[in-house]
# Entry
Amino acid sequence: MSGEMTDDLPWKGIAELGAAMASQAVSPVEVTQAFLDRIERLNPTLTAYISVYPDMALSAARRAEEEIARGDHRGPLHGVPVAVKDIFQAEGMELTCGSPIDKGRISLQDATSVARLKSAGAVLLGKLNLHEFAFGPTGTNPHFGSARNPWNPDYCSGGSSSGSGCATAAALAAGTLGTDTGGSIRIPASLCGIVGLKQTYGLASRHGVFPVCGQFDHGGPMTRTVRDAALMLGAIAGEDAHDPSTRGAVVRDYTAGLERGVKGLRIGVPTDYFFDDLHEEVGPLVRRAIDVLAGLGAEIEEVALPFMDEVDPAWNRICLPEAYAIHEQHLSLHSDLMGPDVVRRLHLARKMTGADLVTARWTRERIIDEMNTILEKLDLLVAPSCPAPAVKIDDPTTTVGGREINGEKILGLLTRLAAFTGQPAISVPCGFTRAGLPIGLQLMGRSFDEPVLLRAAYAYEQACDWHARRPPSAP
# Structure
């Protein structure tokens, strides 16, 4: 294969690469080497990876090549190079969680999602950068260097799955896994111009993933297309005895029905909260995307979500105490090694009482009931993924509603709801600012109704060309 064609391999994506390897038009070794070469060239600038394992990756690629050659094909991910956020255990690979505290610790087993990707034949390239302990929306990391936005390296990739967003957008992996506790898949997806899927809580296992808050934690796909996200979800979904939240989880072919379109789907546009305080370029692009869905046959109607002002405070009162408990020893022994922003956020939990936690849980139960009632009459909700585009790494100030504000305080405000209720949500690119930064469209669906969510996201994606664009900092 010519050098030009080899250089283009990483842009093919999971579905296209998987099909090419299944037909033996290209070899897993060749594809893996193309990704490794690209990582070697671009990662010093983009800092998407914390660690890369070329020998392990090439060994897995050779094994995939042999299996495919003898007719033992495992499916669409067989031989496809992927990477995971460095919060997932991966056997034989270092687990840092983006912190220097446990640097050098090698995992002895795989997280369930990692094991399932490997079982599907995927080739694991390495571990991806993140906001320390997955506890921040910008993805800036003072310890390993911040993952930079491929659309403009002066800007952040979004957190906490910053390396996953960066690596996916820059074609440093065909697909990645991130985690989402309050938006950490969808924020970097929005800021990096890719697809980020937070599946229904309990559909994929959390086992082997370092926790932030067990009630909200999800690990899910980050890809360049909706079809690729569906393929990754199909690989990681399902019941796991190690994670009781997955009891009864049913795996489907999430690519089936993608082409059915949105005609007749009822999509609600919130009148509360989601469009109140936005960067001046976000609202018009999202409204234009909603018009595209309407033009494709979706029935668009306004819907009130009167509980939205309660979501963020209740999320904090549930999440922060659990995160503090997880990190209490770190704070006691190693706070000097932790990022100041992470320490500051964790210490907010000390102001909260047991009554705050109980009241927040009651609030959550009520809001879940109210959301279920709303979605009895609607198939989906649509809104911006983030209130603003990416902010600069060295100066996170952005303008929202005519006010200058620190991006750390607002980037996760629109993604909290779906994490709080556990319903599935996806971010897909819906345009770019005048400065060339991506904007994301967020769709939220009924619990365990990923087929409809993916179908709508795919219909919008195919009506536009945002997913086909390549960032200038990752040629």
